[in-house]
Amino acid sequence: MFYLSKGQKQIVDLLKQFVHLTISQIRDITGMNNIDKLIEPLTYKIMPYLKREGDLLIHPSVKKINKDLLRALDAYSYIHKMFNINWCGISQFPYILSFIEGNKFFDISLIKEGQESIFIPAIERSTSTRIIIVIDSEEQITKINIKGKQYKFFIDKSKKLI
Prior knowledge:
Elements: H1 6-18, E1 20-22, H2 23-30, H3 35-46, E2 51-53, E3 56-58, H4 67-82, E4 85-90, E5 97-101, E6 104-110, H5 116-125, E7 130-135, E8 150-155, E9 160-161
Parallel strand pairs: 6-7, 7-8
Antiparallel strand pairs: 1-3, 2-3, 4-5, 5-6, 8-9
């Protein structure tokens, strides 16, 4: 019988919620620096069914890695370092994640190059008012104009919030 430390429990809870995360995302969300020391016994002794592929920790229920979720989690982990996030969960189209900061509700959407015409009308029709939009590059900003919403861009490659 094995017992989980507080840090290991946080990691397991994150994996149950998001099914896969990178080590850097776990570090940013939890604020812990000794992640590798916590993960090693977790993956070998306590929960050997957890998979680790390089920097990625994967829950055994995962059949296919959701790269869009990982990109949204990059934005969330970046924002989590700056603000006091109370709650975060997986959302539905056109959003990937939703979170609460203070008493404000935010949604995270991922708009890939060329998909602006699909996502913009869907976001405009949604009830969300505060949106973080994950994009590939700064050039994409000129193609996105969402009426009646407050939104910021998170540039995935440069890890920059605009």
